[in-house]
């Protein structure tokens, strides 16, 4: 029996892209036949952002690890996050990046 993966999606109300990201997380987990538990974390203050080392909305962490291996640790940023994946820029993580995040964890 495989252990369930905990996926956190950290977001702000000001940045709407977390909803599309949540949909992509669920689709990707289904495609890979992975059991996940999704925890939505709304970040509403700079203090919370600092505590959570939040690099912007949306942020996706699988078992505590950011899906973007190139992410820089920040001291807390309230705003939309930009993702760079395979030379392109995105306002939320593309499905292939989410898939890569799951696959890295599955290899551990």
Walk me through the structure.
Helix 1 crosses helix 3. The chain has one domain: Glutaredoxin (3-Layer(aba) Sandwich), CATH 3.40.30. The chain is 32% helix and 24% strand. Strands 2-1-3-4 form a 4-stranded mixed sheet, with helices on one face. The two termini are 15 Å apart. It is an alpha+beta fold. It is globular and about 35 Å long.
Fraction of helical residues: 25-40%
Distance between the termini: 15 Å
Q: What coarse outline follows from CA principal-axis ratios?
A: globular
| Radius of gyration based on Cα positions | 13 Å
Put simply, the count of helices is 3
Give the biggest sheet.
4 strands, mixed
Order of strands side by side in the largest beta sheet?
Answer: 2-1-3-4
Give the strand content.
15-25%
- Class in CATH? Alpha Beta
Integer average pLDDT: 89
CATH architect. name: 3-Layer(aba) Sandwich
Summed up, the domain count is 1
Strand tally: 6
CATH homologous superfamily label? Glutaredoxin
Order of helices and strands: EHEHEEEEH
Structural class: alpha+beta
**Which regions are unreliable across 5 or more consecutive residues at pLDDT < 50?**
none
CATH third-level topology: Glutaredoxin
């Amino acid at each position: 029996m495989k252990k369930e993966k905990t996926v956190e999606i950290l977001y702000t109300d000001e940045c709407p892209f977390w909803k599309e990201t949540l949909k992509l997380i669920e689709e990707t987990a289904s495609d890979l036949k992975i059991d996940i538990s999704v925890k939505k974390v709304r970040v509403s203050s700079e203090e919370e952002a600092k505590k959570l080392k939040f690099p912007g909305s949306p942020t996706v962490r699988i078992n505590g690890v950011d899906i973007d291996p190139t992410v820089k640790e920040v001291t807390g940023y309230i705003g939309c996050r930009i993702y760079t994946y395979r030379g392109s820029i995105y306002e939320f993580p593309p499905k292939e990046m989410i898939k890569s995040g799951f696959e890295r964890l599955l290899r551990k």
